[in-house]
Design a protein that fits this description.
seven-stranded antiparallel β-sheet, alpha+beta, 14 strands
């Protein structure tokens, strides 16, 4: 079944001229056309900017029978809702039109977006956020409050401690639609939800970080170790 799935996509891609027309570099991102299958997803091109730990990946999703674009920021990844198409022709047109904008937005000032306007000053002047240690429990501070990363569905990653070698992280997010903070973490690349960082404001979030951040950094490392020893 898996072979039939990838072979079908390979045949469609062989006749897809857009793949040959993609620029080799966009805004510091380098193109690779290597293909890789991850369960029901089949990557067929990617743009990597390794110095920034960011990538944009074109893939086919067998579960939804559609072509999509995935953004990777550190160990966090998500599909862009505006790039979900059931046919290559439409996907290709949207790709040629909007791909440079996608790359540019990965490094745009998220604090300047309309969605964060109501909390911009609070986040930018948050003393606790400014004093976060650069390294903690073997993790590095990858995303900080002064330079959040925009996700999807109104969410922004404002703090992210990452161990890239082991694909572990603990991330703190703000959602502009719910006006609340929350946390997620990855252990060996697998995402998990935590409710211990849920907070209505930065003061509450600060208290929760003091109580739980180190514990979750250790938890992600322990869970990753346990997964690798299975």
């Amino acid at each position: 079944m898996a072979e039939e799935f990838t072979e079908k996509i390979d045949e469609a891609l062989a006749a897809w001229t857009v793949l040959e027309e993609l620029p080799t570099e966009i805004d510091g991102y380098l193109l690779s056309k290597d293909r890789a299958k991850h369960e029901a997803q089949y990557d067929f091109f990617r743009y990597d900017r390794t110095d920034a730990h960011r990538a944009v990946v074109g893939f086919y999703d067998a579960a939804t029978t559609s072509y999509k674009l995935r953004v990777e920021i550190g160990v966090v990844s998500f599909a862009l809702p505006s790039f979900i198409h059931g046919d290559l022709e439409t996907f290709g047109r949207e790709l040629q039109r909007y791909l440079p904008r996608v790359m540019a937005e990965l490094h745009a000032d998220a604090l300047a977006t309309q969605e964060l306007l109501s909390v911009r000053e609070e986040i930018a002047t948050w003393e606790y956020g400014q004093e976060l240690p650069e390294h903690l429990e073997g993790y590095g501070l990858f995303v900080r409050p002064s330079a959040p990363a925009q996700m999807t569905n109104g969410s922004f990653l404002i703090i992210d401690y990452v161990d890239f070698a082991r694909a572990n992280d603990v991330g703190i997010y703000y959602n502009c639609y719910r006006n609340e903070f929350f946390g997620e973490y990855h252990a060996a690349g697998m995402p998990y939800v935590s409710y211990d960082f849920d907070a209505a404001d930065l003061e509450e979030l600060e208290q929760r970080l003091k109580l739980s951040l180190v514990r979750y950094l250790r938890r992600a490392a322990a869970e990753a170790d346990a997964e690798q020893n299975v």
